[in-house]
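Entry 12.
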Amino acid sequence: MAAQASARGNRTSRLTFTRPADVAVLLGIVVTAWLFDLGAHSANIGLAFSASLVAAAAALAVAGRPHNGWSRLLLVAAVAMAPCLTLRASPWLQWPDLVVTVGLLACAAVMASDGSPFGASFAQVRAWTARLLSNMAQVAAFVGAPLSAAGDRLTRDARPTIKQLGRGLAIAIPIACVIGFLLASADPIFASFFKLDLDPASLLEHLFWLALGGWVMGGLLRTSLNAAGEQPPRPLWRINPLEAVVVLLVVDAIFLAFGAAQLVTALGGGVEALHAANMTYAEYARSGFFQLLAAAAITLPLLRILTTLSKAPTRRLRLAITVLVELAVLLTIAVVVVAHQRLSLYEAAYGFTMLRLYSHVFALWIALVFAFFGASILGAGFDARWFPGAAAAAGLALLFGLNILNPEALVVRLNVTQSSANHLLDPAYLAGLSDDAVPDLLKLLPHISPGQQGELRRQLCQRNESQGGWAGYNVAQQTVRTARDSCP
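Predicted 3D structure (tokens):
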């Protein structure tokens, strides 16, 4: 008991600020909030946003004092993802990159003391989420305590020091203004660091973004410094194993019937049903992609709930549930394959778009998640806790791979290659893609029909360049400026 009380006291002491910890926490909050505000007010998502996320990771590593190896690894992953906001200009990538990187920082904060992404049940995830939200709600008190203590110390002990500092600042400020004015006149980038917009509406907007960035950073730091949470709650209710068997039988029967329909269609049957629905075979082949993926997405939580909450008392029932779950997994993967094939037929007729490309990626991720789930049921029983972490890691790997691959450039290459075979190309859509696509479009113009080359070149060369300053610097946009040198 004494040892447990001592351990609790040690963890709680992490919330009792010392002066160096005060400085590290407050500096992390201020720097992150400042960079976040710069990013929010720049014309583009770029360098400032990436820097704010790296600063947040550094603050969590230094001021948050994580001693869990998984937390440190998640911070490394966040630092690896943050530059992608500066590397790519496509909103199809930048917003997922931003959300995922913030998610990695949040996971690192809640796992600062203990836990593993590959050892967390859904109950544990709920407990972590509740802990994070609770700490986010107490940011004001968290930041206010050391500030209040510092103010009390200054009022009580440091009046002579304050006077000396005041006199020093009175001498230094005029000198700094003169030197700063001269340096700002010599370097516009340096001048942009101190550009002030005193418009009341703009000032309120700055205060909002500063407060938002500081609040998020303060919540993450408080979560990281806070003591480890209690044990996750146990399920409040159970599902009778026989009930689970009935549900699985019904689900498997539906998927088997769908598989039979695909077999009938492949053999040339079902023509009457298509005519009754006023649908041609081509329309049938291209329809239903999103419905199929939605069915697969609904099936996964259902299987997870059934396997988690139904504890079969006998070996025969456990075997029956395992077999039915694995059959559902295989049939769902088959549904995902059918959805992929249908979308491929649609692309053969109408070309590639970002939505269609991302639909392929999402279908691949769904198939991987079901494969992981099936493996967890076979290899580690119903309580295999590595599955959620493996599913999240697969999604993170796919997103990182997309940043390296440049999906908008891939869409351009696929469409141009396809147009050489069937002469179908949508110049307006390609010209409307982000700067990630422009260099490849300019390179591939000679492979496009002469009637479309001129229109595409005109639209690409007349695109408005966003002037985001250093805070909005983006590698893709800089590459476009270089590529435009070939414009007439």
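Annotation: Confidence is low (pLDDT under 50) at residues 1-17. The chain has three domains: 2-147+196-225, 241-405, 408-486.
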